[in-house]
């Protein structure tokens, strides 16, 4: 008898522990649930989100590379078919394409709408010759970061091509400095000039407002951010990897490299990322 009651005590104790564990799990989940239930829609819409998911895709060349010996170009390249599949994947999945100038409105939107931003670095001629027709055909909003002093040079878009693209209103242009130096390793005065003068010259040349800046090679240090703010940009993109936009980090926007992923694989990679 004594051994049976000892056994019962052990079973009872185990059951109690299990019940306590289950209760703890339930309580742990409950505050979040009750928060969602109790907050009125007015309060939710008035609250400001600090962070929000925004995959910012980074592209350079989208082409069939003719010169396989040019390994740099090859490493920066995405096959046009893959690029098109990636864009169609996003469109089919209900993503809304936005420009950098729309980031404030984006942060205000507390609905379930999914957003994406498509960025092209360097203003290459292939953008005009090979990529733009697809962008136009599918009515995609994208941003292209121009290097002011490279406009019209071999491999880069001409000023007339930029003007031609501007007519359609689908591409927002940003600045990628005057000469594409690594801003981290040049003098601060020169970095400031590269950041400020490129904005002034692009605005004067094309009669547009330049809102967005992109650090060459994505490299930056915190000391550069005041120059970007002083110039009057409202945001800047880096090559730090991630898909979460922070309201306080508009001058350090992380970007997403889609690689060769398309379809569900691409959507899964975006969804899984928590940086
Ligand atoms: Zn670049």
How would you explain this protein's 3D organization?
The protein has 275 residues and is of the alpha/beta class. It has two domains: 2-38; 49-272, Glycoside hydrolase/deacetylase (TIM Barrel, Alpha-Beta Barrel), CATH 3.20.20.370. It has ten helices and twelve strands. The chain has helices spanning 2-38, 41-46, 71-75, 80-92, 103-108, 125-137, 159-168, 188-206, 225-231, 263-272; strands spanning 51-53, 56-59, 61-62, 77-78, 96-97, 115-121, 142-146, 171-175, 212-214, 235-241, 244-246, 253-255. Helix 9 (225-231) links the parallel strand 9 and strand 10 (235-241). Helix 4 crosses helix 10 and helix 8 packs parallel to helix 9 (225-231). Mean pLDDT is 88; it is low at 21-46. The site of zinc ion has 5 residues, from loops.
- What is the CATH homologous superfamily assignment of the largest domain? Glycoside hydrolase/deacetylase
The coarse silhouette is globular
Instruction: Evaluate the radius of gyration.
Output: 25 Å
CATH class of the largest domain: Alpha Beta
> What CATH architecture label of the largest domain applies?
Alpha-Beta Barrel
| Ligands present | zinc ion
Return residue spans where pLDDT drops below 50 for at least 5 consecutive residues.
21-46
Distance between the termini: 60 Å
Give the fraction of residues assigned to helices: 40-55%
Please report the number of helical segments. Answer: 10
| Number of DSSP-assigned strands | 12
Strand-pairing-aware structural class: alpha/beta
What fraction of residues sit in β-strands?
15-25%
pLDDT average, as an integer? 88
The total tally of domains equals: 2
The CATH topology of the largest domain turns out to be: TIM Barrel
Largest sheet entry: 5 strands, parallel
